[in-house]
Write a structure and sequence with these properties.
The chain is built from five helices and two strands, in the order ββααααα. It is mainly alpha-helical. It has a two-stranded antiparallel ribbon with strand order 1-2.
Amino acid sequence: MTQIKLFPWGKEHPCRMNTSTENPFTPLRAWLLARETELLAEIGAAREAAIDAAAATGIAATDVNDLEDQASKRERTTLQDAEVQRDRKELADVRAALVRLNDGTYGTCIDCAQPIDLQRLAATPSAARCIVCQTQFESRAIPSEITTRP
């Protein structure tokens, strides 16, 4: 029996996998469904916080609203927007993995059609590519002027 100890975000996975007798994707499906629920809650909470913040933008007569305060609010808003964008991207990846689970293509690289290593899926359950194809995909996404030295 293989114990999966760490999953993304440092959480321990509650399932044990016996790859010889059960579908190794069963605990991954459970984890993906739980993560989908978590992400939906986080995105909803961020939306509520944004609504509350927008409602609280009325400045009382005693409040000081200098440039530093405005910059701080802008920075906080930018960071919150980036977090929501990251969560939405992850949610899309999780949902795509669930679709692949349902259609029987989960665990197969979307680029080369080779099996994705089970350890990679345990570390990143929403992985759509094998490590070789993912590395190539990421290297194409980074402009060469950033990765080459003058």
